[in-house]
Amino acid sequence: MIYRNNPAVGRRALIKATAAAGAMQLASPFIISARGEGAPIKLGMVNPLTGILSALAQSEVEGARYAVAEVNKKNGILGRQVELLVEDSANDVGTGVQKTRKLIDRDQVDAIFGDVNSGIAYAMSQVTSEKKVFHIVPGGHTDPITGADCKWNLFRVCNTTSMDAAAITGELIKRFGKKWFFITPDYAYGHTLQDGFVKNLKAAGGEFQGDMLPINTTEFSATLIKAKAYKPNVLLNNMGGLAQIDCMKQFVQFGMVKDMALGGALFELESVKSVPKDAQTGWWDMEWWWDQPKLPEVAKFVADFRAAVGKTPSARHWFGYVAVHSVRLAAEKAKSMEGPKLSLALEDLVLPPDVALQPGEIRYRKGDHELMANIFVGHAHPPEGNPDNVFTVEALVPGEQAAGTVESTGCKMVHPA
Q1: Does 51 lie in the same domain as 104?
Q2: Which member of 16, 103, 212, 367 lies 3.0 to 4.6 Å from 186 by CB, making a disulfide possible if both were Cys?
Q3: How confident is the prediction along the chain (417 residues), in pLDDT tens digits per residue?
Q4: How far apart are alpha carbons 246 and 131 in whole angstroms?
């Protein structure tokens, strides 16, 4: 199916409160609170607000802040107002762990969100599991988080790398061929993503070469020359954030658009809008998309979000939004903010339409705590009509189809006694 985009309003620089979103009180640059009767419920968020993944992290924070304002307008969680405390992991594992411990031990948060960086998210989960604190990973993708290293207290909003690879592989093979070149970040996310692609490609009889590069790589000349010499059907740019943007720019500067197709797992809205028009190309997954014209809940959310935040919501905004509402929904079902009770309440919980914001039954799968959301497969292109119309959805892949069985993930869920 092809979605035609709606006109977008202009972007504003600051987050504003509106009647639709509810009032926001910014206690500091990274704290949002709205106090009512009794002690507030505290939610902690650790994300790389500085560094190469900062644009993606900031969007998750904006989505979470917007959700907190929305929740507080409707009497909070369990009748208590909600406070969001945000810490910068600076894209560093040690810092992320330190900030997680601070939020739990000093700030006494009731639940934790984070991190965009999969390696940091995994390290955080060691702490939250030890401390028995409910933990949602909005946007860290590496498979073991809800696979072999799954934990009773840990849930994830975004897809696994295996899900993203499975959703797009067939489209790339069908359209372009089976000879691929990978440019992949050399950390947890990149390793599991490329492993997923390679598994699928080999099953189809394909071949590949590629380079694994540091996550903060800025110069891609040597790798692009190597790719050009290999003459692949498709170059898969698996880098993230600023590194992916730099790679896309250099790909275009080298004139490689005419030599090979381009694609991969993710080319997120924040990144698509940050590259030249001739680099707004390729076939990719979006893990949520703002233009779904047949769903009134999505249209309302997009309009309200634009009015409050001054921009069109991305998948990263949706990740943060869903994380906050997931805590609310679990607490309402459990009638408690205790970690073990929240966990049991969220298992197999189906998100309501105004939170799922997509078709189908979107639920946290009981066996591995992975959200079974749709994957929006399509192609990037220069803006058509407004700056946010840079992607056309061609198909929806159900999360359950891309994820496979719980047994295949390696997760063996064990709840505390």
Answers
A1: yes
A2: 212
A3: 333 333 333 333 333 333 333 333 333 334 443 333 479 999 999 999 999 999 999 999 999 999 999 999 999 999 999 999 999 999 999 999 999 999 999 999 999 999 999 999 999 999 999 999 999 999 999 999 999 999 999 999 999 999 999 999 999 999 999 999 999 999 999 999 999 999 999 999 999 999 999 999 999 999 999 999 999 999 999 999 999 999 999 999 999 999 999 999 999 999 999 999 999 999 999 999 999 999 999 999 999 999 999 999 999 999 999 999 999 999 999 999 999 999 999 999 999 999 999 999 999 999 999 999 999 999 999 998 889 999 999 999 999 999 999 999 999 999 988
A4: 39
Residues 113 and 217 in one domain: no
Give me the helix-helix angle, 241-253 and 54-73, nearest 10°.
130
Tell which residue, 57, 58, 138, has the closest CA to residue 318: 138
Q: Which two three-digit tokens encode residue 142?
A: 């590496």
Specify whether 37 is located in the same domain as 71: yes
In a domain, 53, yes or no: yes
Q: What is the pTM of this model?
A: 0.89
Please give the residue range of the domain that contains residue 145: 26-159+293-373
Q: 85: which residues sit within 8 A by CB, 6+ positions away?
A: 30, 31, 42, 43, 44, 45, 103, 107, 109
